[in-house]
Write a structure and sequence with these properties.
The structure holds two protein chains of two kinds.
Chain A lengths: L1 H13 L1 H33 L7 E5 L3 H8 L10 E2 H8 L4 E13 L2 E6 L3 H4 L1 E2 L3 E2 L2 E4 L11 E4 L1 H7 L6 E2 L18 E7 L10 E4 H7 L3 E2 L2 E2 L7 H4 L8 E2 L1 E6 L5 H9 L6 E4 L1 H12 L1 H27 L5 H9 L4 H42 L10 H34 L4
Chain B lengths: L1 E8 L9 E8 L4 E5 L6 H8 L7 E6 L2 E2 L5 H11 E4 L11 H11 L1 H10 L3 H11 L16 H13 L5 E5 L7 H18 L2 E6 L10 E4 H4 L1 H5 L8
Parallel strand pairs in B: 3-8, 3-9, 6-7, 7-8
Antiparallel strand pairs in B: 1-2, 1-4, 4-5
Helix pairs in contact in B: 3-4, 3-5, 3-6, 4-5, 5-6, 6-7
Classes of the chains: A alpha+beta, B alpha/beta.
Chain lengths: 424, 237
């Protein structure tokens, strides 16, 4: 077989322009497959890591998916609020490290408003336990002085073109009701968060006290007729919140998570529930996972199309080899020799292509990763291939290899007859 | 010796025979000129002689071995050991040097490798000797075959068919791409080298001017009953 290797190499070098096309095609297929699969995996990871470092999310008793939807994704609303007293009791549980209350319901030009404490900025983690980072400015400090301070997410800032110092007013509820504006109490943007790829990007953050302040002269979802409390006067009222929508809870020790969950569920004062964010996010992913299945379908389609293209390129090169294979057979090369030569070339070309494709994928992730993170909040990670990706790589290699054997099969069938009547 | 007995060959799907020859014998070391108009089954007969095609009926034997008694792999090996083949054109692998092209049969056949080593000091020496014999200067030997003229390529093909002294050399219109001057030179060296190595030569052409240089001449149109039966365009010259 050694002389065949020499001949195979010389032959391949002779056709290097065509073969480099094949290598390019294989590399492109690999890049597409790996890139697509990487994005699919990372979108899922991003989703399941919308919140991390939080052990439990507490809210009024409802479905766990619904609680996640409004507490993390700011979608839909809570059926019931929970009392601050209840949260204070829960905070006293010896396993509980911290509690960050959250109040939702208002909005600003379609973006949800989250009222919380200043602890939120240090306690809320996302992704691989990453903390929120302020791109500009500072968080609100929770003092009366900074009562009307707001910290906005990166997408809010981008979409609305807001900078530090921008004044804005909030709408009551989702902003659908005309006249439901808290126009009398404008806020000032004091901080803009760096992009996270989580719902935080779409959120405006104010303090719980500010939430109370803008609702002082409201009752039952409408301004009280005849009552008007000026913004500066609001500071004289007791602004300590009585009720909130939900709370994030961190534990001293994760082991206690089920004990605390049970304690919350058994809380005698009101009907509460606590969900484990990871579990609830997985449940939620099952609901919204149709999108992932669509991506998976597209991955499969990309795979089929690129493999078909690869086979087409290899087959297109077959005709220029017919005479060569006929000569080889005529000088005594047996079908197994010819097959070996084609297989060696096919294997080498495919592996080279896959190698280049993997390298291109790494370069793309390194080059485009930061941009994707900033632009779309998709954090592409440079990770060793997943089992699915290994499978895809194996499929590419197998397809390239098999495609290169097709000429071998045809050579076996007809190359000598071809050579004997070279006019055809 | 090539021996054809009661040969019938029909292409798959064809209604009538393509080749039907009752008897044809080519003695060892002799040269046979096979001529006839195109379409009379010349290439098919060569395919049968080289064991690429198997007869539908009857037998074709080389050195007493009928091709049809060998398995596919044995036929390949038998052909590599005992048959040198020259095509009409495109004989060479364009990316190999002249020398490597001539040496190709020695890479696949141990028999021809050993015999060529006996002829020269080594297969390479034998190849160099043959290249010199067919008039290709040493300065060309390491050139890729693609750089040669058609006439030079056919001479390399002849050298390759002859290396390791195969018992049978089959040439399928090897001069049709050559002009008159090149053709005569090529015929001289092919016949001379076959005689020198004792190879049986079967030479197919429609150019009957070459016929007299051979030991025997056979008109395929006359011995192939399938061709006589079929419609013929014009008369044989």
């Amino acid at each position: 077989m050694k002389p065949m290797l020499m001949i195979a190499w010389r032959s391949a070098w002779n056709r290097r322009s065509t073969l480099s096309l094949v290598v390019f095609s294989v590399a492109l297929s690999t890049l597409l497959l790996l890139g697509f699969e990487r994005i699919r995996t990372d979108v899922r990871d991003n989703f399941s890591q919308s919140v991390s470092g939080t052990d439990l999310i507490v809210g009024a008793r409802t479905g766990s998916v619904q609680l996640m939807l409004y507490a993390v994704f700011r979608v839909g609303g809570a059926t019931n609020n929970i009392r601050m007293d209840s949260l204070r009791d829960i905070a006293k549980h010896r396993a509980v490290d911290w509690v960050v209350p959250m109040s939702l319901g208002d909005s600003h030009r379609g973006f949800p408003v989250l009222a919380t404490t200043k602890d939120y900025f240090s306690r809320f983690l996302y992704g691989d336990r990453e903390a929120l980072v302020l791109a500009q400015g500072r968080p609100f400090d929770g003092t009366l002085q900074g009562l009307y301070d707001a910290v906005i997410g990166a997408e809010v800032a981008d979409a609305l073109g807001y900078r530090l110092g921008q004044h804005l007013t909030l709408s009551h509820g989702s902003g659908a009701i005309p006249g439901g504006e808290h126009a009398d109490k404008p806020f000032t943007v004091v901080g803009i968060l760096a992009r996270t790829g989580t719902p935080v990007d779409r959120t405006l953050h104010i303090s719980l006290e500010a939430m109370e302040a803008i609702h002082l002269d409201w009752v039952g979802g409408a301004p009280m007729p005849g009552v008007k409390i000026l913004p500066q006067d609001a500071r004289k009222f007791d602004l300590a919140p009585k009720q909130v929508t939900a709370a994030l809870i961190g534990l001293k020790n994760r082991v206690a998570v089920f004990a605390v969950q049970r304690a919350v569920a058994d809380y005698p004062g009101e009907a509460l529930m606590a969900v484990l964010p990871g579990v609830a996010l997985d449940e939620l992913w099952d609901v919204v996972g149709v999108g992932e299945r669509a991506l998976l379908g597209m991955s499969a389609m990309v795979a089929i199309v690129s493999l078909a293209g690869l086979i087409a390129v290899v087959l297109a090169g077959l005709n220029e080899r017919r005479r060569e294979l006929a000569v080889l057979r005529a000088v005594g090369a047996a079908p197994r020799h010819v097959l070996f030569m084609l297989a060696a070339e096919g294997g080498f070309v495919t592996l080279l292509g896959v190698g280049l494709g993997v390298m291109a994928t790494v370069v793309m992730i390194l080059a485009a990763g930061p941009w994707l993170q900033v632009r779309f909040g998709i954090g592409l990670k440079l990770a060793p291939p997943t089992p699915e990706q290994w499978l895809l790589l194996a499929a590419v290699v197998a397809a390239g290899f098999l495609a290169s054997l097709v000429p071998g099969w045809r050579a076996y069938r007809m190359s000598l007859a071809d050579g004997l009547s070279p006019k055809t | 010796m090539i021996d054809v007995r009661g040969l019938r060959f029909t292409w798959p799907g064809a209604e009538r025979d393509c080749v039907a020859i009752d008897s044809l014998t080519v003695p060892d070391g002799s040269s046979l000129f096979l001529y006839g108009p195109s379409g009379c089954g010349k290439s098919t007969l060569l395919g049968l002689m080289a064991g690429v095609l198997l007869p539908s009926d009857g037998s074709v034997s080389l050195m007493g071995t009928a091709w049809s008694t060998l398995s596919g792999a044995r036929r390949d090996a038998f052909r590599a050991d005992h048959v040198g083949y020259i095509f009409q054109q495109f004989n060479l692998l364009p990316y190999l040097s002249l020398l490597d092209n001539v040496l190709l049969p020695c890479r696949f056949s141990a028999v021809r490798r050993e015999r060529s080593a006996k002829d020269g000091a080594s297969p390479t020496a034998a190849a160099q000797h043959l290249l010199r014999q067919v008039g290709l200067h040493e300065s060309l030997w390491e050139r890729p075959a693609a750089q040669l003229s058609v006439g030079q390529q056919q001479r390399v093909a002849a050298a390759r068919a002859l290396i390791g002294r195969p018992e049978v050399v089959i040439a399928d219109e090897p001069t049709s791409a050559l002009d008159a001057a090149l053709r005569d030179g090529f015929m001289d060296l092919l016949l001379g080298e076959c005689r020198a190595s004792g190879s049986t030569l079967v030479f197919v052409s429609h150019d009957e001017r070459l016929a007299l240089r051979f030991d025997a001449q056979v008109s395929l149109a006359e011995i192939n009953r399938a061709a006589v039966d079929g419609p013929r365009v014009g008369a044989a010259p």
